[in-house]
Fold this sequence. Notes:
Its main location: membrane. It is a single-pass type II membrane protein. This protein is α/β, with parallel strands linked by helices and 365 residues long. It has a single domain (50-362), classed as Alpha-Beta Complex (Spore Coat Polysaccharide Biosynthesis Protein SpsA, Chain A). It is built from eleven helices and nine strands. It has a four-stranded mixed β-sheet. Helix 2 (50-66) packs parallel to helix 4, helix 2 (50-66) packs across helix 7 and helix 3 (99-106) runs parallel beside helix 11 (351-362). The protein is globular and about 90 Å long. It starts with 6 loop residues before the first helix and ends with a helix. Mean pLDDT is 88; it is low at 1-10 and 70-80.
Amino acid sequence: MLASSPCFPTTSSSRSPLLLSSILILLSLPLFFLLAPRVLPPRTLPAIPASDELDDLALFRRATLASPDVRLLGSPGRRTSPPPKVAFLFLTNSDISFAPLWERFFRGHAGFFNVYVHADPTASIVSPGGVFHGRFIPAKPTQRASPTLISAARRLLAAALLDDPANAFFALVSQHCVPIHSFRFVYRAVFDAATAADRGRRPRYRSFIEILSGEPGLWDRYVARGDQVMLPEVSFDQFRVGSQFFVLTRRHAVAVVRDRRLWKKFRMPCLKSKEDSCYPEEHYFPTLLSMQDPAGCTGYTLTRVNWTGSVGGHPHTYRPGEVTAELVRNLRRSNGTYSYLFARKFSPDCLDPLMELSDSVILRD
């Protein structure tokens, strides 16, 4: 009896720590789930703030309701008041270094174009004046590997739709883009393409936007937000890729700002593990227009980009020593139906050699 009695406290003491540990684990679970998002690294890249989404929704609704019937717009050679215009949409996160070249490009063509600038408010960007004076629209921050670049382009389209019902084409360019033809050439190129295609009928303008399928790495980009996230709105066989820079018709600009169905998918942030495959701005516009009106798109971009030797998703950047008359002529050439009208990417210090070529080469067709 005496020999066996010590067994009771020994067994009790061995069970108590185990029981206590179990109770502590159960009690700590709610605290773990509460603090985990702050302690563990985020699973996705930053999302668009809800306040930005609400502001955009109101803007896009106004632009959609205010847009007139684009079929009433005239074409070059047909008397209209005012004539149809090209809206140039500058998307930038730094100073517009090539403003003097663009000034020379626009000179003498007032009444045939409008300028709009979306400048990232987190950067200290100074208006260069001239045609850019008073043309900066309310902007939100943008960043790579983020749908914020799509939002910025949509804001530019909405602002241009609201500002002038004569805007018939909408050309998206960046601070690194330069014209490689005269304004007269550019204007005739976008309008005459529609007129020639319609063979004398009322012109139905077409958008110049690159739309590609079956490209290498497309599946990785499709699942950048998750394996099944894009379904059912966008199946993989509907997923497209193309240049971020385009020239859209007015009806397609309206379609973009009106869209809610595809946007609810593309606005979702990419998984952090898929950051290297996250380029939503290269997919949203070609996918949307390919699904809605493929016959209304040429399938070509009018902006020439050199991807030879690209680094980190950035194309080749031209330096002053590369800027020659021969380079400009080569950049114009295309294997497709249409000549290139713009080119990128140029470093800011290319301004002087480009200005030297402006009258003799760039703006002389």
